[in-house]
Amino acid sequence: MDSVGTNRPPLRPVAAAATRRSALLRPPSHLGLGNRFAETKLGIASGCGGGGGYFGKVQGFDALRSTTTKVQSGKAGRSVTKEMGHTSSGNEVPLKYSSGKAFPLGVSQVDDGLNFAIFSQHASSVTLCLNFPERGNQDDVDIVEFALDRQKNKTGDIWHVSVEGLPASGVLYGYRINGPQGWQQGHRFDDSVILLDPYAKLVYGRKHFAVEKEKPSQLFGTYDFDSSPFDWGDNYKLPNLPETDLVIYEMNVRAFTADESSRLAPAIRGSYLGVIDKIPHLLELGVNAVELLPVFEFDELELKRFPNPRDHMVNTWGYSTINFFAPMSRYASAGGGPVAASKELKQMVKAFHNSGIEVILDVVYNHTNEADDVNPYMTSFRGIDNKVYYMLDLNNSAQLLNFSGCDLHGMLLGFRVVLSFVTYGLSLAMVFIQASLVTKQYMWLLTLYHGP
């Protein structure tokens, strides 16, 4: 076992902006799903690569001042914190880890603790990074890194580990992933970066919308198994209005109430709760359905990463996806963070439905925050398995493919990834429980290739 104490902040690559594109799903015959799709199911939909040594790093980035404890895979089943005399953030229970299980992806509760599972078909090594914020200051953390054993902690293309002794909420987590460095073959691995789990249900990052002093914030997945299930109420029901009768209002949650002319208290302007206060106005207009622009985690400061003609702008629409399953945390009232965002989003959906208003989600799978190979910004998909998450032109230096016609440097998530995200989201009802989900083409594939 190698115990290391060091000031080692995660390094943040610089990246470019993305622009809006329309969704396009391609039939399976174009992508060669074959038997592998049926065998691996969700395994096909995870991970994206980085570029070992290629990306420029910002060495001055100090969003996290951390002490790192590295745990080698040979210590499975033993008390790693007790052996090293290490405790994290007042947690007196020694951490132990075992092989874990492949499903479900993300983090889940198991009998002996919490299970972490992530897909990466091309990875050669995966390290789980657990981050314990100190009380009162979430910029100071202790980091424990578990190096996974490819023999004990890997099933097919899914890497997994179970950790005993973790709190049921509040821990931040991510992954360091390494693999082939073949740029021409489409790989972009870089294990100097802590990557966000694509299946995280909550994302910890900046607390306030478009606050530039919070711009260099490290993104982590987090979880909350302490809170009680959301109470939808005994009399709750969906409006179930005929599509032909819908009067749809397209809405951006923040822009709808962010201005002081909304006459709302500052704490709830531009938030899920602020929208609730304006439901009577929508009813007066005769609206019976709202289509919400992206309400999952996105990067509103994507245009400010490096000097460019649009660096004075903020992406308020939300088409710069960081994670498809976590509610936009900066839509929580008063900077409440990811747990509050999850609860308040459900409160908003419940209020809409109780008022007879349908809720439609705008979910666009050909937008992410990671930009292109010219100015890459790696936070998740690229560094986990670029060749799986993105559609690449292997005849052109593995450049990202774009079929939307509105961005020559765009990316389009691979069909199998999109299918997995959609089916996974439907099976869990996502974090956006009870809201409707609309995609644009090939819905019949959900029947042919259902899963997870």
UniProtKB/TrEMBL annotation:
GO terms for molecular function: hydrolase activity, hydrolyzing O-glycosyl compounds. Residues 269-379 form the Glycosyl hydrolase family 13 catalytic domain. Residues 104-200 form the Glycoside hydrolase family 13 N-terminal domain. InterPro entries: GH, GH13_cat_dom, GlgX_Isoamylase_N_E_set, Glyco_hydro_13_N, Ig-like_fold. One of its GO terms (biological process) is carbohydrate metabolic process. This is Isoamylase-type starch debranching enzyme3. The lineage of its organism: Eukaryota, Viridiplantae, Streptophyta, Embryophyta, Tracheophyta.
